[in-house]
Design brief:
Largest sheet of chain A: none
Order of helices and strands of chain A: EHHHHHHHHHHHH
Number of strands of chain A: 1
Distance between the termini of chain A: 39 Å
Number of helices of chain A: 12
Strand content of chain A: under 5%
Radius of gyration of chain A: 22 Å
Shape of chain A: flat
Structural class of chain A: mainly alpha
Oligomer: homodimer
DNA sequence: TTCAAACTGTGTCCCTCGGATACAGAGTAC
DNA sequence: GTACTCTGTATCCGAGGGACACAGTTTGAA
């Protein structure tokens, strides 16, 4: 079980994430590094999740006392933020010669991979956060890929939100090692079996699933999203003031 | 700060979520109800988040001792699961006369609303979970809406995953009370300002944003997703074995 | 009618974990 | 060399989840 600190020292976290590594002058030289601490935390969280991440364990793995960590990090919450920034890392260079679609496709898969390698990153990205340089660089990559496509700035950011969400969500369903074949059938099947009258459509859908087929939810969703974006870009190219984000279904209730 | 119990008693949780309310015979009649406990927990979490949810506080609000709760719930993790199931509630009836698109549009907005009303639900839906009857009913609604569209069972489930993800992710960015106008500009702007050479595309995108415009990320993403699904359905109608989920961009690396 | 079994709520205790604080040693600037 | 400052440490505290034994209550069986 792990404690999830509610309060985050935003001022201090901003300095940690965005500040320049100002070397202090007086006093003994620090034995640790922010990067080393984050790395140690990542190793632990990768193995045992955020619940397994305790200041004590991080300190032990660095051969220091627990309280020594507080000389570098204000608290656990900020440590997790640093870990996230380090685990996500810099965005990859866009594939050579790729158009916007190729770039976004690759981008999403790479991000998915990062999330899958660090399952705790899921939990570390809930709620309002202060993004770090790396995180912002990922967003920059999406916007850059969409520059010149006719989408507005707001829409470009919307795409980033959409793709981040997809990558993040699918990492949740996937095991750390590849996509599980027909695991959904197993998970849902147990619940639906015996309750077919309550979940008739679900039952029918599950019956149609080939347990041998690999789970392609990432591919499927990504293809749909990119198709949708492509349609908008094409429409914009034909008529610059066409179909924005206001399209709603017949049952949509305006908010 | 709150403790997030790692281990969940799956066997017991299954009974709690799916079991029939078997009335025990002997002994004093219980003063509490699972539903009442969940409701109390929801009230607290709505106000102070999951960090504010402690067994002590839940017990106090019910005028019982902390340990009395353990007669009903194995632990905190299971309580959160019950709260989630209750907070999500039953899915809404599909809008009368709506096609698949109208149904899914409405469905997503309704789910978004549930998530927005209970911000903690975000954090409560990370990682592999055992879905409750309500949660499964929501999935059933999506699959039912897509029955007869030509999508395979697996694809119908993929759509459900996609839409849940979108609703969930956007609830994270939205404030509990409506969409914040141009808040993104404020959040990102501070970080980009002064670092324009590092985030040139982002800077350009932010400059193009009207701070007065309402944040339409939910609408935008939803429209793109539904457009993409519509394109697939149309293609399937024209040629039953056309474009599945395998379409990849040039940079896509097969897994 | 009696009594044992089963179940409920309580009081007490323990462990883990984040964090505050005071202190001792190390290194640097004057 | 000396005063200042920064680092790591030791100790302590409170919050929180959960175990456990016990007392009271209700019901079914004798």
């Amino acid at each position: 079980m792990t404690v999830e600190t509610g309060g985050v020292d935003k001022r201090r976290l901003f300095e940690l994430l965005w500040g320049t590594p100002t070397g202090p002058r007086r006093g003994p030289r620090p034995t640790l590094t922010l990067a080393a601490i984050a790395r140690a935390g990542i190793t632990i969280a990768d193995a045992d999740g955020l619940e397994g991440l305790t200041m004590q364990r991080v300190a032990e793995s660095l051969d220091v006392t627990k309280m020594a960590l507080y000389r570098y990090v204000p608290g656990r919450a900020e440590l997790v933020a640093l870990m996230l920034e380090a685990a996500i890392g810099e965005p990859p260079a866009p594939p050579a010669g790729a158009d916007w679609r190729g770039r976004l496709d690759d981008w999403t898969r790479q991000l998915f991979d990062r999330f899958r390698r660090h399952p705790w990153a899921q939990a570390a990205t809930v709620g309002a956060r202060l993004p770090g340089p790396n995180e912002l660089a990922w967003v920059e990559a999406v916007v850059a890929a969409l520059t010149g496509t006719g989408l507005t700035g707001a829409e470009q950011l919307d795409v980033a939100v959409l793709l981040v969400g997809h990558a993040r969500n699918l990492a949740q369903h996937a095991t750390p090692e590849g996509a599980p074949a027909g695991s959904r059938e197993a998970a849902f099947g147990v619940l639906v079996r015996g309750r077919e009258e309550r979940f008739p459509a679900l039952d029918a859908a599950l019956r149609g699933i080939d347990p041998e087929a690999t789970d392609a939810a990432l591919d499927f969703g990504l293809a749909r999203i990119l198709d949708g974006i492509g349609a908008l870009i094409a429409a914009r190219a034909a008529d610059p003031r066409s179909g924005g984000a206001a399209r709603r279904g017949p049952g949509g209730r305006g908010e």
